[in-house]
Specification:
With 164 residues, the protein is of the alpha+beta class. The chain has helices spanning 2-32, 88-101, 142-161; strands at residues 42-48, 57-63, 67-74, 81-85, 109-110, 120-126, 129-136. The chain is 40% helix and 27% strand. Helix 2 (88-101) packs antiparallel against helix 3.
């Protein structure tokens, strides 16, 4: 008799465990198929890498809504995650600069012979999907270096103003 009760209890526990595990797996897969809102649709990922000196190192994800997630890594006023919003005019200008850059025509890598040069990594997005990656250390078209400088200055304005 005890053996039968033990067997029923083990079967019941197995069914409960199976149901909990299945429910957890289904809830995880349901959340990963969510639709991106405009606020979460990336436009540009901009990363400045470290060098052997005091080069500012950070990452910034700029979304189509103008929202920016900034992650300071080294030699920036704040080494933490900041969120801020570009003005409508700044977002419009950045979007136009991206179109004018014609990034699909750029090479994937503009490398230097120097080992100490920091890199700028650019990830361009179309409809929320990565369309092009460019790693820039040195050289390349003038329009690319101007774009990098202008975007860096725009971001620097915010992460510097935020922590004065």
């Amino acid at each position: 008799m005890n053996y039968t009760l033990l067997n029923i209890q083990l079967t019941f526990n197995s069914v409960v465990l199976f149901c909990l595990t299945a429910g957890l797996l289904l809830s995880c897969s349901a959340s990963s198929t969510s639709v991106q809102t405009d606020d979460a649709t990336p436009l540009l990922f901009f990363k400045k890498s470290r060098c052997y000196g005091t080069c500012p190192a950070y990452e910034a994800t700029i979304y189509t809504s103008g929202r920016v997630q900034f992650v300071g890594k080294a030699y920036v006023p704040v080494t933490d995650t900041l969120y801020f919003n570009l003005t409508d005019a700044e977002l419009k200008e950045l979007s136009q600069n991206i179109r004018d850059l014609n990034y699909s025509e750029l090479e994937n890598l503009y490398k230097t012979a120097w080992s100490d040069m920091p890199s700028t990594h650019l990830y361009f997005y179309e409809s929320g999907k990565e369309a092009k990656q460019v790693k820039h250390q040195e050289g390349g078209p003038v329009k690319l270096t101007r774009f990098i400088d202008a975007t860096n200055e725009l971001l620097q304005k915010y992460y510097t103003d935020t922590h004065k």
